[in-house]
Amino acid sequence: MNIGKDGLNRRDFLKVGGLGTVALTLGTTGFLSLTGAKEGVAATSGFTGYGPLVKDPNGILDLPRGFHYKIISQTGERMPNGDLIPALFDGMAAFKGEKNTTILVRNHENGTNSQYPVNGKNPWSKGAAGGTTALIVDENRNVIDEYVTNSGTIRNCAGGPSTWGTWLTCEETRDLGHGFVFEVNPLDPENEMSKTPIRDMGYFSHEACAVDPTTGIWYLTEDSSPSFLYRFTPHDRSQKLGSLQKGGILEAAAIDEISTTSPSQLNSGQKFGIVWKQLNPERAQQDAKDLGCIQFSRLEGAYFSAGTFWFDDTSAGGKALGRVYRYFPATNTLELFYESTSQNELEMPDNITIAPWGDLWIAEDGGGNDRIVGLTPEGNIYTFAENRMNGSEFAGPTFSPDGKTLFVNMQTPGITFAIWGPFARRNVARQRAMNHAAPPASLAPAVSDKLTAFADEQGMSILEAAALERHGMPIL
């Protein structure tokens, strides 16, 4: 990893020998309920996280007191069929399985050569070492099966889950004729669909994708420099198995001057907003450049939640430390939620997710010991986990369908963790609140008085004006 309609108000995410059975217990507390916190949460400031991290005596993963982890899969160990577990764990999603099981689908970011390749029986390209695997995890967080679901692909970085139980795995490359999205069904592994590129979703260095369940439209990020924000509108928006293979329209986001149509205004002025420009999917990036679409630095994580598409730009900003954006399809509004500086408490955001109780969780991919950081609707920031083993990134954070277990990968040496403890209860209202919350003060993008005045004149939020100004909108 080295994603306005008229009449709506515009104001309104090495193998570790012998460690596979380690489970670390970090103590116990009576903590917590977001409706009535018992310990460690200041009632006047809202939820502030799970408290300080406790040092892991095994030197692997620091977590807050009361939380436990278990290594459930690691590179080089054997799957039930005898094959070795592939390397370079990356993006991942969790689906509900039978008999209280969780089905994990996991990417492997291998290229063409690897000590631990994805060895499939029905590869798309025989020279490629990447692909995806699936893990069936029981209610006690034990792996009861593990197998290949897609093979013959390259640099499977991130992707996104569909609403019908499949995983879209994305190739982060444009080498050797690779650079596509493939749909993987964990219940029908290595079928023909898994080796059939969805060409209308574009030929470019894909990163992550997420679907709007209301419309069936997909949003895609690109890990390249520059990179663009894409959307894919399927011809068949039934959101059923096989619908994406029927093709669709690929577009990229651009900033455009919008003429005003209100007869009551004394002057026409200028309005700015997001427009989508159609591309030839086989030359998506070049078309986006030629059409003047928004050039981001290097897009990474993507997540859709309650009407909002979250995505991040891992190396953007004056200090190249990253930005987090949110896009509202209903109002066609792009906002700059977070922009890192040297004083901020978050560095180089990568994979993102919305926790069941509503917080935005971000996996870092920066220098030093990477972390999982939470941002709350109340404007607080906290650290949930820190890699104490090495400098590898976290990847693919995803919660089990019941919200009781966090599954996350450490890309190198290739470890999948199951983490559990006193997580807050599912809170749909708070998930919605996160989508409209102001960012923590330390992370909010800096805006000038001139930009504030301009935003008010344009009828924009400050965060919307900041997003457009960072990408070339003139401040009049």
Q: Provide the β-strand percentage band.
A: 35-45%
Strand order of the largest sheet: 2-3-24-23-22-21
Low-pLDDT runs of 5+ residues are: 2-33, 35-44, 261-268
What structural class is derived from the secondary structure elements?
mainly beta
Overall mean confidence score, pLDDT = 89
Rg from Cα = 22 Å
The overall strand count is 27
Overall, the morphology is: globular
Count of helical stretches: 4
Please report the distance between the alpha carbons of the first and last residues: 38 Å
* Helix proportion range: under 10%
Largest β sheet strand count, sense and barrel closure:
6 strands, antiparallel
Give a structural overview:
With 476 residues, this protein is mainly beta. The protein has four helices and 27 strands. Helix 3 packs across helix 4.
